[in-house]
Amino acid sequence: MINSKRVLDHPAFLLHHRAFRDSSQILEILTQEHGRLALVARGSRGGKSRYRGVLRPFLALRMSWVIRSDLGTLTGAEIAGAPLVLTGKGLLSGYYVNELLLNLLHKHDPQPDVFDLYDKTIRALSAGEQLSATLRRFEGELLNLIGYGLNLGCDAVSGELIDPDKSYHYRVEQGPVETTVKTQSPSFSGRQLQAIAAQYFADSDVLRAAGLLFREVLAYHLDGKELKSRKVLLDLQRNLKKD
What we know:
The structure is a single chain. This protein has helices at 88-104, 112-126, 131-145, 190-197, 204-221, 228-242, and strands at residues 5-20, 24-31, 35-41, 61-67, 71-79, 167-171, 175-178, 187-189. A hairpin with a 3-residue loop joins strand 2 (24-31) and strand 3 (35-41). It has a 5-stranded mixed beta barrel with strand order 1-2-3-5-4. By secondary structure, the chain is an alpha+beta fold. The chain is built from 6 helices and 8 strands, in the order E-E-E-E-E-H-H-H-E-E-E-H-H-H. 27% of the residues are buried. The model has no long low-confidence stretch (mean pLDDT 90). Helix 1 (88-104) packs antiparallel against helix 6 (228-242) and helix 4 crosses helix 5.
């Protein structure tokens, strides 16, 4: 049961929006102190709406709302600070980040650290920093913050510290397990796991391994659901390699 609440001028980002009735929208937003919320923005699709040009993804916003149930009502929104611009693969990466949050965060669960991580990530994508490394850092930090952090320090079976010269499979519910047998499941060197734990992605081999590892872990927590934005990114990368 959600108590009636009025919130004024609060930091937020728009993650997703969809049409609702004739001229309204339902917004999925990420807030600094109130977590992920769904709000109705009445009349926001109308040509004379005061929200025109404001309710866009990746803009730092200050929003006001009233909420009495699972679905609240937007009462105000304005852009906070200079707009960020995402283009090309950076834009697709931003939509991937949004889609991850929509699928992994529970509503009404305050996560100020996730809000700060999102803000930092979107700014890095806007600045054109290394996109793949930025996304791997986001995935790893997000998993930690929502309670799905990876065990990359020791063998889940033997309890021994990860050996940089050994190979491991990663069992999502346990952690890395030493292996000497090649199977269909991806294997990782101890050196790669140590570098991923330290977020050292300057090495392309480590970056590739981190992509495989996080993809496996995220697929598990998403119950196998394929994210549309990730599919577009992977298809784009494959086409670029063909060219």
